[in-house]
């Protein structure tokens, strides 16, 4: 079973498309953060995960952040 559930995630985003885009972008930021830890680089580029997660999967961490309402996004034209 997928956790968090899709219906919980869709409460915090406009559409499934927005969910995919926001989650993928945040997962890349979390990945960058973990690579910066190993290299000793500052954290200005990629903020750390915003939730405590049992998962080591970056996409799952991003989805948990969305589920808890920790991420805000906006469309640019």
In short:
51% of the residues lie in helices and 0% in strands. The chain has 77 residues and is an all-alpha fold.
Please describe what this structure looks like:
This protein is mainly alpha-helical. The protein has one domain. Helix content is 51%, strand content 0%. It contains 3 helices and no strands. The longest helix is centred in the middle third of the chain and has 24 residues. The N and C termini lie far apart (37 Å). The mean pLDDT is 85.
Write the layout of secondary structure elements.
Blueprint: H1 6-10, H2 16-39, H3 58-67
What attributes does this structure have?
77 residues, mainly alpha
- The helix content is 40-55%
Given helix and strand content, the structural type is mainly alpha
Beta fraction = under 5%
Q: Mean of residue pLDDT?
A: 85
Overall number of structural domains: 1
Shape: globular
Q: Radius of gyration in whole Å, from Cα?
A: 13 Å
CA-CA gap between termini: 37 Å
Count of helical segments?
Answer: 3
Q: What are the secondary-structure elements, in order, as H or E?
A: HHH
Task: Count all strands and give the number.
Answer: 0
Pick out the low-confidence regions.
Answer: none
């Amino acid at each position: 079973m997928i956790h968090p559930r899709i219906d919980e995630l869709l409460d915090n985003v406009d559409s499934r498309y927005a969910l995919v885009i926001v989650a993928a972008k945040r997962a890349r930021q979390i990945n960058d953060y973990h690579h910066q830890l190993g290299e000793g680089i500052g954290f200005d580029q990629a903020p750390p995960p915003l939730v405590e997660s049992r998962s080591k999967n970056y996409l799952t961490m991003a989805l948990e952040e969305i589920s808890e309402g920790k991420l805000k996004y906006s469309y640019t034209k």
